[in-house]
Design brief:
The chain contains 15 helices and 15 strands. By secondary structure, it is an alpha/beta fold. It folds into four domains: about 50 residues, Ubiquitin Ligase Nedd4, Chain: W; about 160 residues, Hect, E3 ligase catalytic domains (Hect, E3 ligase catalytic domain fold, Alpha-Beta Complex); about 70 residues, Hect, E3 ligase catalytic domain (2-Layer Sandwich); about 110 residues, Hect, E3 ligase catalytic fold (2-Layer Sandwich), CATH 3.30.2410.10. Helix 13 crosses helix 15 and helix 14 packs across helix 15. One of its GO terms (cellular component) is cytoplasm.
Protein backbone atom coordinates (compact mmCIF):
# COMPACT_ATOMS: atom_id res chain seq x y z
CA UNK A 1 0.00 0.00 0.00
CA UNK A 2 1.08 3.61 -0.51
CA UNK A 3 2.92 5.13 2.45
CA UNK A 4 1.76 8.74 2.01
CA UNK A 5 -1.18 9.84 4.20
CA UNK A 6 -4.63 9.55 2.71
CA UNK A 7 -6.35 12.73 1.50
CA UNK A 8 -8.51 14.41 4.14
CA UNK A 9 -11.93 12.76 4.31
CA UNK A 10 -10.71 9.35 3.14
CA UNK A 11 -10.43 6.20 5.24
CA UNK A 12 -8.82 2.83 4.59
CA UNK A 13 -10.71 -0.28 5.66
CA UNK A 14 -10.72 -4.03 5.01
CA UNK A 15 -13.46 -6.42 3.95
CA UNK A 16 -14.31 -9.55 5.94
CA UNK A 17 -11.85 -11.41 3.72
CA UNK A 18 -9.07 -8.95 4.46
CA UNK A 19 -9.11 -7.04 1.17
CA UNK A 20 -8.26 -3.35 1.46
CA UNK A 21 -10.72 -0.75 0.20
CA UNK A 22 -11.19 2.99 0.65
CA UNK A 23 -14.05 5.15 1.91
CA UNK A 24 -14.67 8.66 0.60
CA UNK A 25 -16.70 10.28 3.40
CA UNK A 26 -17.22 13.52 1.47
CA UNK A 27 -18.85 12.01 -1.62
CA UNK A 28 -20.29 8.99 0.19
CA UNK A 29 -18.68 6.27 -1.93
CA UNK A 30 -16.37 3.27 -1.51
CA UNK A 31 -13.70 2.02 -3.92
CA UNK A 32 -10.88 -0.47 -4.22
CA UNK A 33 -8.79 2.23 -5.91
CA UNK A 34 -6.27 3.82 -3.58
CA UNK A 35 -6.80 7.60 -3.97
CA UNK A 36 -3.05 8.09 -3.51
CA UNK A 37 -2.36 5.98 -6.60
CA UNK A 38 -4.80 7.53 -9.03
CA UNK A 39 -3.14 7.50 -12.45
CA UNK A 40 -0.56 4.88 -11.47
CA UNK A 41 0.10 2.04 -13.89
CA UNK A 42 -1.09 -1.33 -12.62
CA UNK A 43 -0.21 -4.78 -13.87
CA UNK A 44 -3.19 -6.71 -15.32
CA UNK A 45 -2.01 -9.97 -13.78
CA UNK A 46 -1.47 -8.47 -10.33
CA UNK A 47 -2.75 -11.03 -7.80
CA UNK A 48 -4.16 -8.30 -5.54
CA UNK A 49 -6.20 -6.89 -8.42
CA UNK A 50 -7.59 -10.36 -9.18
CA UNK A 51 -8.53 -10.79 -5.53
CA UNK A 52 -10.33 -7.44 -5.52
CA UNK A 53 -12.33 -8.37 -8.61
CA UNK A 54 -13.67 -11.41 -6.80
CA UNK A 55 -14.47 -9.45 -3.63
CA UNK A 56 -17.73 -7.50 -3.30
CA UNK A 57 -17.16 -3.83 -2.54
CA UNK A 58 -18.87 -2.86 0.78
CA UNK A 59 -21.52 -0.17 0.49
CA UNK A 60 -21.00 3.28 1.99
CA UNK A 61 -22.66 3.84 5.37
CA UNK A 62 -23.34 7.35 6.63
CA UNK A 63 -22.60 7.39 10.37
CA UNK A 64 -21.41 10.00 12.86
CA UNK A 65 -17.75 9.47 12.03
CA UNK A 66 -18.47 9.83 8.32
CA UNK A 67 -20.44 13.02 8.94
CA UNK A 68 -17.62 14.44 11.04
CA UNK A 69 -15.10 13.75 8.28
CA UNK A 70 -17.27 15.47 5.71
CA UNK A 71 -17.55 18.55 7.92
CA UNK A 72 -13.80 18.52 8.60
CA UNK A 73 -13.03 18.58 4.88
CA UNK A 74 -15.31 21.57 4.39
CA UNK A 75 -13.62 23.33 7.30
CA UNK A 76 -10.23 22.91 5.68
CA UNK A 77 -11.53 23.97 2.31
CA UNK A 78 -12.94 27.14 3.88
CA UNK A 79 -9.90 28.15 5.92
CA UNK A 80 -6.39 26.72 5.71
CA UNK A 81 -2.77 27.80 5.96
CA UNK A 82 -0.15 25.29 4.83
CA UNK A 83 2.52 26.62 7.18
CA UNK A 84 3.55 25.42 10.64
CA UNK A 85 2.75 26.97 14.01
CA UNK A 86 5.07 26.34 16.95
CA UNK A 87 3.54 27.17 20.32
CA UNK A 88 6.16 27.69 23.03
CA UNK A 89 4.77 27.29 26.53
CA UNK A 90 5.73 26.44 30.10
CA UNK A 91 3.96 23.62 31.89
CA UNK A 92 3.95 25.78 35.03
CA UNK A 93 2.21 28.63 33.21
CA UNK A 94 0.31 26.64 30.60
CA UNK A 95 -3.02 28.48 30.73
CA UNK A 96 -1.64 32.01 30.65
CA UNK A 97 0.97 31.21 27.99
CA UNK A 98 -1.65 29.55 25.81
CA UNK A 99 -4.13 32.41 26.27
CA UNK A 100 -1.57 35.06 25.37
CA UNK A 101 -0.32 33.13 22.36
CA UNK A 102 -3.65 32.12 20.83
CA UNK A 103 -5.38 35.49 21.31
CA UNK A 104 -2.45 37.31 19.71
CA UNK A 105 -2.70 35.47 16.38
CA UNK A 106 -5.03 35.81 13.42
CA UNK A 107 -7.43 32.97 12.74
CA UNK A 108 -5.70 31.71 9.58
CA UNK A 109 -2.44 31.25 11.47
CA UNK A 110 -4.23 29.03 14.00
CA UNK A 111 -5.08 26.57 11.21
CA UNK A 112 -1.42 25.79 10.54
CA UNK A 113 -0.03 22.43 11.59
CA UNK A 114 0.63 22.62 15.31
CA UNK A 115 3.95 21.96 17.02
CA UNK A 116 3.98 22.25 20.80
CA UNK A 117 7.29 23.04 22.51
CA UNK A 118 7.40 22.83 26.29
CA UNK A 119 10.02 24.92 28.03
CA UNK A 120 12.90 22.75 29.26
CA UNK A 121 11.82 19.63 27.33
CA UNK A 122 13.50 18.14 24.27
CA UNK A 123 10.50 16.38 22.78
CA UNK A 124 9.67 16.76 19.10
CA UNK A 125 5.98 17.06 18.41
CA UNK A 126 4.76 14.54 15.85
CA UNK A 127 1.22 14.72 17.21
CA UNK A 128 1.40 13.35 20.75
CA UNK A 129 2.40 16.60 22.40
CA UNK A 130 -0.37 18.49 20.60
CA UNK A 131 -2.94 15.97 21.83
CA UNK A 132 -1.53 16.26 25.34
CA UNK A 133 -1.54 20.06 25.17
CA UNK A 134 -5.23 20.23 24.22
CA UNK A 135 -6.05 17.82 27.03
CA UNK A 136 -4.03 19.74 29.64
CA UNK A 137 -5.28 23.12 28.45
CA UNK A 138 -8.92 22.07 28.54
CA UNK A 139 -8.36 20.63 32.02
CA UNK A 140 -7.03 24.02 33.16
CA UNK A 141 -9.99 25.79 31.53
CA UNK A 142 -12.44 23.61 33.47
CA UNK A 143 -10.57 23.98 36.77
CA UNK A 144 -12.74 25.43 39.58
CA UNK A 145 -9.81 27.72 40.43
CA UNK A 146 -10.39 29.62 37.17
CA UNK A 147 -14.07 30.06 37.93
CA UNK A 148 -15.38 29.80 34.37
CA UNK A 149 -17.08 26.42 34.65
CA UNK A 150 -18.73 24.43 37.39
CA UNK A 151 -19.03 20.67 37.62
CA UNK A 152 -22.69 19.76 37.98
CA UNK A 153 -24.08 17.14 40.34
CA UNK A 154 -24.54 15.03 37.18
CA UNK A 155 -20.77 15.03 36.58
CA UNK A 156 -20.87 17.29 33.51
CA UNK A 157 -19.61 20.86 33.23
CA UNK A 158 -21.71 24.00 32.85
CA UNK A 159 -20.81 27.68 32.68
CA UNK A 160 -20.55 28.99 36.24
CA UNK A 161 -23.27 31.57 36.93
CA UNK A 162 -20.82 33.30 39.27
CA UNK A 163 -18.39 34.08 36.44
CA UNK A 164 -18.13 37.81 35.73
CA UNK A 165 -18.13 40.14 32.76
CA UNK A 166 -14.35 40.48 33.17
CA UNK A 167 -14.12 36.81 32.14
CA UNK A 168 -15.64 37.47 28.71
CA UNK A 169 -12.26 37.48 26.96
CA UNK A 170 -11.50 34.12 28.55
CA UNK A 171 -14.78 32.67 27.31
CA UNK A 172 -13.93 33.90 23.82
CA UNK A 173 -10.56 32.17 24.24
CA UNK A 174 -12.34 28.96 25.32
CA UNK A 175 -14.38 29.11 22.12
CA UNK A 176 -11.22 29.54 20.06
CA UNK A 177 -9.65 26.56 21.86
CA UNK A 178 -12.67 24.36 21.12
CA UNK A 179 -12.56 25.55 17.51
CA UNK A 180 -8.87 24.69 17.23
CA UNK A 181 -9.50 21.25 18.72
CA UNK A 182 -12.30 20.54 16.24
CA UNK A 183 -10.30 21.90 13.30
CA UNK A 184 -7.18 19.88 14.15
CA UNK A 185 -9.09 16.73 15.12
CA UNK A 186 -8.18 16.83 18.84
CA UNK A 187 -10.31 16.05 21.89
CA UNK A 188 -11.42 18.04 24.92
CA UNK A 189 -10.73 17.00 28.52
CA UNK A 190 -14.28 16.39 29.68
CA UNK A 191 -17.94 16.66 28.74
CA UNK A 192 -20.29 19.59 29.09
CA UNK A 193 -23.96 19.36 30.03
CA UNK A 194 -26.50 18.79 27.27
CA UNK A 195 -27.85 22.39 27.57
CA UNK A 196 -24.32 23.63 26.78
CA UNK A 197 -24.27 21.78 23.44
CA UNK A 198 -27.85 22.83 22.68
CA UNK A 199 -26.91 26.46 23.29
CA UNK A 200 -23.92 26.12 20.96
CA UNK A 201 -26.27 24.92 18.25
CA UNK A 202 -28.85 27.67 18.94
CA UNK A 203 -31.47 25.12 19.99
CA UNK A 204 -34.18 26.27 22.43
CA UNK A 205 -33.75 25.28 26.08
CA UNK A 206 -36.66 23.90 28.09
CA UNK A 207 -37.49 23.07 31.67
CA UNK A 208 -36.57 19.40 31.14
CA UNK A 209 -33.00 20.44 30.26
CA UNK A 210 -32.39 21.41 33.88
CA UNK A 211 -32.19 17.70 34.76
CA UNK A 212 -28.81 17.47 32.98
CA UNK A 213 -27.33 20.01 35.38
CA UNK A 214 -29.32 19.51 38.61
CA UNK A 215 -31.45 16.38 38.91
CA UNK A 216 -32.94 17.23 42.32
CA UNK A 217 -33.95 20.71 41.22
CA UNK A 218 -35.61 19.29 38.13
CA UNK A 219 -37.56 16.73 40.18
CA UNK A 220 -38.87 19.50 42.44
CA UNK A 221 -39.83 21.70 39.51
CA UNK A 222 -41.55 18.77 37.83
CA UNK A 223 -43.63 18.21 40.97
CA UNK A 224 -44.73 21.83 40.87
CA UNK A 225 -45.58 21.52 37.18
CA UNK A 226 -47.65 18.37 37.65
CA UNK A 227 -49.35 19.28 40.92
CA UNK A 228 -53.02 20.22 40.71
CA UNK A 229 -52.92 22.44 43.81
CA UNK A 230 -49.83 24.25 45.20
CA UNK A 231 -51.70 26.87 47.21
CA UNK A 232 -50.27 25.55 50.49
CA UNK A 233 -46.68 25.05 49.29
CA UNK A 234 -45.46 28.46 50.47
CA UNK A 235 -43.53 29.27 47.28
CA UNK A 236 -42.33 32.70 46.16
CA UNK A 237 -40.82 34.19 43.01
CA UNK A 238 -37.21 33.64 44.08
CA UNK A 239 -34.58 30.90 43.93
CA UNK A 240 -31.72 29.91 46.20
CA UNK A 241 -28.23 30.06 44.73
CA UNK A 242 -24.59 30.33 45.81
CA UNK A 243 -22.80 33.65 45.36
CA UNK A 244 -19.13 34.31 44.49
CA UNK A 245 -18.16 34.00 48.17
CA UNK A 246 -19.83 30.61 48.55
CA UNK A 247 -22.80 31.89 50.55
CA UNK A 248 -26.39 30.79 49.92
CA UNK A 249 -28.47 33.74 48.77
CA UNK A 250 -32.04 34.30 47.64
CA UNK A 251 -32.26 35.65 44.08
CA UNK A 252 -35.53 37.39 43.11
CA UNK A 253 -37.05 36.22 39.83
CA UNK A 254 -39.19 39.36 39.65
CA UNK A 255 -37.12 42.27 40.99
CA UNK A 256 -40.21 44.48 41.16
CA UNK A 257 -42.15 41.89 43.17
CA UNK A 258 -39.68 39.60 45.02
CA UNK A 259 -42.23 38.59 47.67
CA UNK A 260 -44.99 37.58 45.27
CA UNK A 261 -46.38 34.16 46.09
CA UNK A 262 -46.59 31.35 43.55
CA UNK A 263 -50.19 30.29 42.99
CA UNK A 264 -52.03 27.81 40.82
CA UNK A 265 -52.74 30.65 38.42
CA UNK A 266 -49.16 31.94 38.01
CA UNK A 267 -47.08 28.79 38.49
CA UNK A 268 -46.36 28.51 34.75
CA UNK A 269 -44.88 32.00 34.84
CA UNK A 270 -42.79 30.93 37.85
CA UNK A 271 -41.52 27.81 36.06
CA UNK A 272 -40.66 29.86 32.98
CA UNK A 273 -38.67 32.37 35.05
CA UNK A 274 -36.86 29.58 36.93
CA UNK A 275 -35.94 27.92 33.63
CA UNK A 276 -34.71 31.23 32.29
CA UNK A 277 -32.61 31.86 35.40
CA UNK A 278 -30.87 28.48 35.44
CA UNK A 279 -30.39 28.10 31.70
CA UNK A 280 -30.00 31.67 30.39
CA UNK A 281 -28.23 33.67 33.12
CA UNK A 282 -24.90 32.90 31.43
CA UNK A 283 -26.01 33.82 27.90
CA UNK A 284 -23.44 36.62 27.74
CA UNK A 285 -20.61 34.19 28.49
CA UNK A 286 -22.00 31.63 26.03
CA UNK A 287 -22.24 34.24 23.29
CA UNK A 288 -18.58 35.18 23.81
CA UNK A 289 -17.61 31.49 23.64
CA UNK A 290 -19.61 31.06 20.42
CA UNK A 291 -17.95 34.15 18.98
CA UNK A 292 -14.51 32.59 19.55
CA UNK A 293 -15.61 29.22 18.19
CA UNK A 294 -17.21 30.75 15.12
CA UNK A 295 -13.89 32.29 14.08
CA UNK A 296 -12.53 28.83 13.25
CA UNK A 297 -15.62 26.65 12.98
CA UNK A 298 -18.86 28.23 11.70
CA UNK A 299 -21.74 27.47 14.05
CA UNK A 300 -23.95 26.94 11.01
CA UNK A 301 -21.72 24.05 9.94
CA UNK A 302 -21.99 22.42 13.38
CA UNK A 303 -25.77 22.56 13.17
CA UNK A 304 -25.58 19.43 11.03
CA UNK A 305 -25.00 17.59 14.32
CA UNK A 306 -27.42 16.84 17.12
CA UNK A 307 -26.30 17.98 20.61
CA UNK A 308 -25.48 14.40 21.61
CA UNK A 309 -23.39 14.00 18.46
CA UNK A 310 -21.51 17.23 19.12
CA UNK A 311 -20.69 15.91 22.58
CA UNK A 312 -18.99 12.87 21.04
CA UNK A 313 -17.29 14.97 18.38
CA UNK A 314 -15.71 17.25 21.00
CA UNK A 315 -15.02 14.71 23.73
CA UNK A 316 -14.69 11.33 22.03
CA UNK A 317 -16.11 8.06 23.36
CA UNK A 318 -16.82 7.96 27.08
CA UNK A 319 -15.61 4.46 27.89
CA UNK A 320 -12.53 2.53 26.84
CA UNK A 321 -13.60 -0.69 25.12
CA UNK A 322 -10.83 -3.26 25.55
CA UNK A 323 -12.17 -5.52 22.81
CA UNK A 324 -12.10 -2.64 20.33
CA UNK A 325 -8.64 -1.65 21.62
CA UNK A 326 -7.25 -5.17 21.16
CA UNK A 327 -8.86 -5.61 17.74
CA UNK A 328 -7.18 -2.46 16.47
CA UNK A 329 -3.69 -3.07 17.87
CA UNK A 330 -0.71 -3.97 15.69
CA UNK A 331 2.50 -5.72 16.73
CA UNK A 332 6.16 -5.54 15.84
CA UNK A 333 8.06 -8.80 15.35
CA UNK A 334 8.46 -11.12 17.09
CA UNK A 335 5.33 -10.00 18.98
CA UNK A 336 1.95 -11.23 17.70
CA UNK A 337 -1.46 -11.42 19.32
CA UNK A 338 -0.59 -14.97 20.45
CA UNK A 339 2.87 -14.15 21.87
CA UNK A 340 3.12 -14.97 25.64
CA UNK A 341 4.07 -11.41 26.67
CA UNK A 342 1.21 -9.96 24.63
CA UNK A 343 -1.24 -12.32 26.31
CA UNK A 344 0.09 -11.16 29.69
CA UNK A 345 -0.23 -7.55 28.60
CA UNK A 346 -3.94 -7.84 27.73
CA UNK A 347 -4.59 -9.78 30.94
CA UNK A 348 -3.04 -6.89 32.87
CA UNK A 349 -5.08 -4.28 30.99
CA UNK A 350 -8.29 -6.24 31.61
CA UNK A 351 -7.58 -6.04 35.36
CA UNK A 352 -7.28 -2.23 35.37
CA UNK A 353 -10.02 0.20 36.29
CA UNK A 354 -11.43 2.65 33.74
CA UNK A 355 -9.37 5.44 35.34
CA UNK A 356 -6.20 3.35 35.10
CA UNK A 357 -6.99 2.44 31.49
CA UNK A 358 -7.44 6.11 30.62
CA UNK A 359 -4.14 6.90 32.34
CA UNK A 360 -2.50 4.22 30.19
CA UNK A 361 -4.08 5.69 27.07
CA UNK A 362 -2.77 9.13 28.06
CA UNK A 363 0.70 7.65 28.57
CA UNK A 364 0.79 5.81 25.26
CA UNK A 365 -1.12 8.11 22.89
CA UNK A 366 -1.00 11.60 24.46
CA UNK A 367 -4.72 11.69 25.29
CA UNK A 368 -6.97 9.79 27.69
CA UNK A 369 -9.86 9.88 25.23
CA UNK A 370 -10.93 7.33 22.63
CA UNK A 371 -11.57 9.15 19.33
CA UNK A 372 -14.93 9.24 17.63
CA UNK A 373 -15.38 5.91 15.85
CA UNK A 374 -13.17 3.96 18.27
CA UNK A 375 -9.55 2.80 18.23
CA UNK A 376 -9.49 2.23 14.49
CA UNK A 377 -9.43 6.04 14.20
CA UNK A 378 -6.45 6.80 16.43
CA UNK A 379 -4.24 9.42 14.83
CA UNK A 380 -0.45 9.49 14.63
CA UNK A 381 1.98 11.99 13.14
CA UNK A 382 0.85 11.45 9.53
CA UNK A 383 -2.82 10.61 9.92
CA UNK A 384 -4.60 7.41 11.08
CA UNK A 385 -2.21 5.27 13.09
CA UNK A 386 -3.34 2.23 15.06
CA UNK A 387 -1.85 1.47 18.46
CA UNK A 388 1.35 -0.58 18.19
CA UNK A 389 3.24 -2.77 20.65
CA UNK A 390 6.87 -3.49 19.78
CA UNK A 391 9.65 -5.25 21.71
CA UNK A 392 11.90 -3.13 23.91
CA UNK A 393 15.49 -3.94 22.99
CA UNK A 394 17.02 -2.76 26.25
CA UNK A 395 15.97 -3.46 29.84
CA UNK A 396 13.85 -1.02 31.80
CA UNK A 397 10.28 0.15 32.12
CA UNK A 398 7.78 0.10 29.26
CA UNK A 399 8.37 3.15 27.08
CA UNK A 400 5.74 5.10 25.14
CA UNK A 401 6.12 7.12 21.95
CA UNK A 402 2.79 8.93 22.10
CA UNK A 403 3.26 10.76 18.80
CA UNK A 404 3.24 7.38 17.04
CA UNK A 405 0.80 5.54 19.38
CA UNK A 406 3.59 3.08 20.06
CA UNK A 407 4.48 1.14 23.22
CA UNK A 408 7.87 -0.51 23.67
CA UNK A 409 7.21 -3.49 25.93
CA UNK A 410 9.97 -5.60 27.52
CA UNK A 411 9.67 -9.38 27.22
CA UNK A 412 8.05 -10.02 30.61
CA UNK A 413 7.46 -13.52 31.90
CA UNK A 414 5.72 -12.50 35.14
CA UNK A 415 2.30 -10.81 35.00
CA UNK A 416 2.60 -9.08 38.36
CA UNK A 417 5.93 -7.54 37.43
CA UNK A 418 4.49 -6.36 34.11
CA UNK A 419 1.54 -4.74 35.89
CA UNK A 420 3.68 -3.14 38.57
CA UNK A 421 6.19 -1.65 36.14
CA UNK A 422 3.52 -0.57 33.64
CA UNK A 423 1.59 1.31 36.33
CA UNK A 424 4.83 2.83 37.62
CA UNK A 425 5.70 4.03 34.11
CA UNK A 426 2.21 5.48 33.70
CA UNK A 427 2.14 7.36 36.99
CA UNK A 428 5.77 8.45 37.27
CA UNK A 429 6.63 9.39 33.69
CA UNK A 430 5.83 13.01 32.86
CA UNK A 431 6.86 15.21 30.00
CA UNK A 432 8.18 14.24 26.61
CA UNK A 433 11.60 13.06 25.66
CA UNK A 434 12.90 12.83 22.11
CA UNK A 435 10.36 10.83 20.14
Amino acid sequence: MAEAPLPLGWEEATTEKGVHYFIDHVNGVTTFQDPRLVGAVTTPNNKKNKKKKKEKLPKFKRDLYSKSQSVLVRLHQRLQDEGQLQINISRDNLLEDSFNFITSLDVTTLTRRLFIKYEGEEGLDYGGMSREWFLSLSEKILSPDLGLFLRCSTGYYMIDRRSHSRDIEYFRFVGMTIGMALYHGKLFFSYFSLPFYKSLLDKPLELCDIQYEDENLYKNLKKISEAEDISTWDLFFSVSDIDAEGKIVEVPLKPDAPDEAVTNQNKNEFLELVTNYYLHTTDKQMNALKEGLNQLVPIELLKEFEPEELEQLMGGSKDLDLIDFKTNTEYGEPYTDSHPVIKLFWEVLSSLSQDELKAFLQFSTGTNKVPLGGFSHLYGSQGPQKFQIVPKKISGLPTAHSCFNRLELPNYTDKEKLKKELLFAITETKGFGLE
